[in-house]
Design goal:
Blueprint (H helix, E strand, L loop, with lengths): L1 H41 L1 H5 L16 H10 L3 H10 L3
Helix pairs in contact: 3-4
Length: 90
């Protein structure tokens, strides 16, 4: 009987401690989002240049997003897809 009571107390203490740690983690994440959002709003004019264009146009050259994405899907080398993209251009 005493062992059962000890286990119940241990489980409830563990749950309380876990809830406390989760509250701290959630508070840190929310604070980061709020502070980061404030920074972006305050410096929007200078940061806007970094976001234009948000997704660069596909060129088929080395480092192109299309070539890399297709190489991940097809398991081929990115250079093969770069040649394919360049060859089929109008």
């Amino acid at each position: 009987m005493a062992l059962a009571a000890l286990l119940v107390i241990g489980v409830s203490e563990s749950a309380k401690f876990n809830n406390f740690i989760v509250a701290i983690k959630t508070s840190v994440i929310v604070a980061f989002i709020i502070i980061g959002g404030w920074f972006v709003i305050e410096h929007f004019d200078t940061l806007k240049a970094n976001w234009d264009p948000f997704i660069p146009a596909a060129t088929g050259e080395k480092g192109d997003l299309t070539s890399v994405a297709m190489s991940r899907v097809s398991k081929k080398h990115p250079a093969a897809w770069g040649r394919y993209v360049n060859r089929n251009r109008a």
